[in-house]
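Show me any protein, fold above all:
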Amino acid sequence: MIDEKQVNEKYQILLNNLKNLFPAFKEQINIEYAFCGLFASTNNNMGIILKTNKDNVFIFSSCGANGIINAFFGVELLLDLFDNKENWLEKIFSIERKIF
């Protein structure tokens, strides 16, 4: 859930910083459009790796605080998937995994 009050406070801080960088244009600098980026993650912050119906085409989605860590494990898993080898990480990165 987005806290609009907090978001507007952050926008104001950014606007004030920009105006301080360009004091000669202070009166001309306004917010015309603001967007608070969306950030999605799985319930357990683990990435997801899917095999598509095309040969050697996979989808690897990982973001959040564990994105970099997931990337290291994801690459290990992808290399094995390309070689049709089993890997214990498949269950962890599966979209069908159980999340506790």
